[in-house]
Write a structure and sequence with these properties.
The complex is a heterodimer of chains A (290) and B (603). Chain A is mostly helical and 290 residues long. The radius of gyration of chain A is 22 Å and the shape is globular. Chain A starts with 5 loop residues before the first helix and ends in a 7-residue tail after the last helix. Chain A has helices spanning 6-9, 14-23, 26-43, 45-48, 79-115, 117-132, 135-146, 150-177, 180-188, 192-229, 240-246, 259-283. Chain A has one domain (26-283): MetI-like (MetI-like fold, Orthogonal Bundle). Chain B is 36% helix and 23% strand. Chain B contains 24 helices and 22 strands. In chain B, α16 packs across α17 and α17 (430-443) runs parallel beside α18 (460-477). The termini of chain B are far apart. The model of chain B is unreliable at 1-12 (pLDDT under 50). At the A-B interface, α9 and α10 of A face α15 of B.
């Protein structure tokens, strides 16, 4: 869905990639490093976690020790293992939902901009209706009615998310759709698909990319929020949102353990945005003049 | 403040107001810092106008901005002195410079539409600088504004300031801009191509305003342009620039009559007409026939009313008229973007479906279009290879090596080397971009090419090169051109037939010789007399003619009945012209003439 900016397409070989990494500003390096570590932990979770995701190993709320590096949770599962597995679940889910939301939103947005007329009206009014209902309440409503299974969760958040992407994609694509080169393509007799993918999309990649970074973080927080409320990822599957809820009583005892999943969310959010900022800067062609 | 100005005025006669010595400016590019202005000297006294001439990239605007002590982002002034009324601008503080720029130095940009804030009324924008700098109170400023509007002959001067920028015409907006630049009574005005994007008739209107301002306010002005004929009307001295170097400097008369440098003569030549030899097709064969077309947008009025004419294969038909005449609408109708409300189009003696969607690939391929702004006519994310290659694979099914070979051939045809194939549009100059657009049109192997103001956005010399290229291609490939333009010089050099369009109706059409020679249609006469001539005093001469007095500073209005040109026409017959459609008079040569008057009586 998302195209890497031109400057990065040549980064096929490892060496090239490394060179780009070295050229990146410090904030982007930090972001890339954090994302890399998260990715490694997510992919190799079963190897890296000391215990299983749902194993009950000891007493509830054990303190940090050699055996349980970050202690145990409210029913005696290893906190560190659950943190690692939780990351794997939630990052995968957030990525999937964001991609889905982006595909729906940007494709409909570009169609609306390219065709205009009643198609545009139809898509825009549907979006208006969906956006008129507060996102969290809307999600709660749908999930309470349909039940909290994974496909419904993914579908619901993706559709809510796509309305925001639709607005951005439509607005930016409209500015491009009036350009002469789009008219040239139309006069040539190009089909809608070509006009969208080859003429419009490459010119709205930058704003979409920025939106992607933001959306990914919002989706992340949204899932966590739903999980915290009990409608997101269902136990015993680990995820950071419900982990905060399950262990929240510990805060009253001056223990920072329940804040660790929250911290993990915050760190990833910051890292993703650093990287997106850098990519935006590169693809916008801004040159540093010192 | 006024006492100070008085003193300045008195000592101005001998001391230059602006003195630039050995100015060097560098610009940042991928190759690092490079010199873009290489040692320029100039002096300017109060009441004097200096014209800066050159192609794009000559450093004109950079010098213009530098004379305000300003360097654009990515530019830096490396050497030289800029003395404004004894103040060294290079060492002046930002605060000091800002103060000067608001009150004593003003800048008028090329596009007034982009320079006005659409969300504020015109008079509010006029008073802003003066009030902000504490030069005068809001009431004083508003009074001054109304006074200036009256002085500059703007319509309804007492109330025009209450309008929004979109409620006045392009020419009026540009004049409002000049008025705004005068709000604090500046000593130095910098005009950066203020008439380049305008019609000839509107251009005169703006030139007159600028001339008035300079004479009655006794200010010094720098006038930046690539059009020698325009600047000759205003400037006392001219400086010719090329690649940031000062080619030649002298009085306007000396530069026009006896240029010392070869480049200056080249600039002068580019402006003189190059007559086209009549195309030698043995059997005139009709390629496109437009039959009584009526067209308009949505529920709006008919922009085109009963337009009919035809194109002969291998010839060039030029469509001329001011903005609002319906020239571009006509192009949209022919390409199928705007299906007409009435009438039909026949191509190669077969009827062309009115809407784009109903046309097949073959019909689309035969009509290609070249646009006014090559910058936006090419996708900035596509390389030349794809821009030219796409029509090749789309229409002709060429792939891989074959496509590449043909692309290189096309590049060769437009006089660009093979090395251009991997460039992005950003890496091309304005003229090169337009060449690529021509190549893209040729790639489809069309029969008819619609050229919509293809040279208006280009410098004189580059424009001439593009015209030469188009003519060469026409001779080689037997192309037929529909050439839309408001520049009659260009039309005179390229057209075989001319269609003069006014308010969506054909005022006159026929062979170029019949249209551009007496007897003139009153509207054609107005257009022709508005084309600047390369001599001093032309502006005054033209403004004193009755055509100009009747026709300048009026907008094109579409009328349902009568002759739309009647209210601008110096020879309009009272009552009759407003009421009745002008009768169509036809001569043997195919020359038609829509006017109440007999052509013979209009010598």
């Amino acid at each position: 869905m998302l195209q890497t900016p031109d400057c990065c397409t040549h980064a096929n070989s490892m060496l090239n990639f490394f060179k780009i990494f070295l050229d990146a500003p410090l904030s982007a390096k930090f972001g890339l490093l954090v994302i890399f570590i998260y990715a490694v932990f997510s992919i190799f979770a079963p190897l890296l976690a000391p215990y299983g995701e749902t194993e009950i190993l000891g007493a509830a709320y054990e303190l940090w020790s050699d055996k349980f590096l970050l202690g145990t949770d409210n029913i005696g599962r290893d906190m560190l293992s659950r943190l690692i597995y939780g990351g794997r679940n939630i990052i995968g889910l957030a990525l999937l939902i964001t991609f889905l939301g982006f595909s729906i939103g940007s494709i409909t947005g570009m169609i609306a901009a390219a065709l205009g007329g009643w198609v545009d009206q139809l898509f825009s009014r549907i979006t208006d209706v969906l956006m008129a209902i507060p996102a969290l309440i809307f999600a709660l409503l749908i999930l309470s009615v349909l039940g909290t299974s994974m496909p419904y969760l993914i579908g619901t958040i993706a559709i809510i998310d796509s309305t925001r992407v639709f607005r951005i994609a439509r607005a930016t694509a409209m500015n491009v759709a009036v350009m002469d080169y789009v008219e040239v393509a139309r006069l040539r007799g190009e089909k809608l698909g070509w006009v969208m993918l080859k003429e419009i999309l490459p010119n709205i990649t930058a704003p979409l990319l920025a939106e992607f970074g933001l959306r990914f973080c919002f989706v992340f927080l949204f899932i966590s929020a739903l999980s915290f409320l009990g409608l997101g990822i269902q136990p015993p599957t680990a995820d950071w949102g419900s982990m905060v809820r399950d262990n929240s009583t510990l805060i009253t005892y001056d223990d920072i353990t329940p804040l660790l999943p929250a911290g993990a969310i915050a760190l990833l959010t910051v890292a993703v945005n650093f990287v997106v900022d850098w990519m935006l800067h590169k693809s916008s062609g801004l040159k540093d003049v010192s | 403040m006024s006492a100070e100005v008085q003193i300045n005025n008195e000592r101005s006669s001998s001391i230059p107001l602006l003195e630039v010595k050995g100015l060097r400016i560098e610009g940042f590019s991928e190759k690092g810092w490079q010199e873009i202005v290489c040692g320029v000297d100039l002096q300017l006294k109060r009441g004097e106008v200096l014209g800066l001439i050159g192609e794009s990239g000559a450093g004109k605007s950079t010098i213009g901005l530098a004379s305000m002590g300003f360097a654009r982002d990515g530019c830096r002034i490396t050497e030289g002195n800029i003395l404004f009324d004894g103040i060294e601008l290079r060492s002046a503080s930002e605060e000091q410079k800002r103060k000067l720029r608001g009150t004593r130095i003003s800048y008028v940009a090329q596009s007034a539409a982009a320079a006005f804030n659409p969300a504020h009324r015109l008079l509010n924008q006029f008073t802003e600088a003066a009030v902000d700098h504490g030069v005068m109170s809001r009431d004083e400023a508003e009074n001054k504004g109304r006074g200036l509007y009256r002085r500059l002959d703007l319509p309804d001067p007492d109330r025009i300031g209450e309008r929004w920028p979109h409620q006045v015409s392009g020419g009026q907006l540009q004049r409002m801009m000049v008025a705004m630049a005068m709000s604090c009574g500046p000593d130095l005005l910098v005009f950066d191509e203020p008439t380049t994007a305008l019609d000839v008739t509107t251009q005169i209107e703006v030139l007159k305003t600028i001339k008035d301002v300079v004479t009655f306010q006794n200010v010094a002005a720098i006038y930046i342009t690539h059009d020698l004929a325009v600047v000759a009307q205003l400037a006392d001295t001219l400086m010719v620039l090329r690649y940031g170097n000062q080619v030649e400097m002298g009085t306007t008369r000396q530069i026009l009559d006896a240029p010392k440098q070869e480049y200056t003569s080249e600039l002068l030549d580019a402006r003189t007409r190059h007559e086209k030899l009549p195309s030698g097709t043995t059997q005139p064969e009709e390629l496109l026939k437009i039959n009584s077309i009526k067209a308009g947008y949505l529920n709006g009025p008919d922009i085109l009313q009963n337009v009919s004419f035809s194109l002969t294969r291998g010839q060039t038909v030029a469509v001329v008229g001011e903005s609002g005449s319906g020239k571009s609408t006509l192009a949209r109708v022919i390409t199928g973007l705007l299906p007409p409300r009435n009438g039909n189009i026949r191509f190669n003696d077969r009827e062309l479906p009115p809407a784009l969607k109903q046309r097949n690939k073959h019909q689309l391929r035969e009509v290609q279009m070249i646009y006014q702004m090559p910058d936006v006519a090419m996708n900035p994310r596509q390389r030349v290879r794809d821009i030219i290659g796409r029509p090749l694979s789309f229409y002709l099914g060429l792939k891989g090596k074959e496509r590449e070979k043909r692309t290189v051939e096309l590049l060769d045809q437009i006089e660009l080397s093979e090395s251009y194939i991997d460039r992005l549009p950003d890496e091309l100059s304005g003229g090169e971009k337009q060449r690529i657009c021509i190549a893209r049109a040729l790639a489809a192997e069309p029969e008819l090419v619609i050229c919509d103001e293809v040279t208006s956005a280009l410098d004189t010399i580059v424009a001439q090169a593009i015209l030469n290229l188009l003519q060469r291609l026409q001779a080689e490939l037997q192309l037929t051109y529909l050439f839309i333009s408001h520049d009659l010089d260009t039309v005179a050099s390229i057209a075989d037939q001319v269609v003069v369009l006014y308010a969506g109706r054909v005022a006159e059409q026929g062979p170029k010789s019949a249209v551009f020679e007496p007897p003139y249609h009153p509207y054609t006469r107005l257009l022709l007399s508005s084309v600047p001539e390369m001599r001093q005093g032309w502006l005054e001469d033209t403004l004193s003619t009755r055509e100009a007095q009747a026709g300048i500073a009026r907008e094109v209005k579409i009328t349902e009945q009568g002759c739309p040109f009647a209210e601008r026409c110096p020879v309009a017959v009272p009552d009759t012209c407003v009421r009745d459609h002008p009768p169509l008079q036809t001569a043997d040569t195919g020359h038609t003439f829509a006017c109440q008057h007999d052509p013979g009586s209009l010598l």
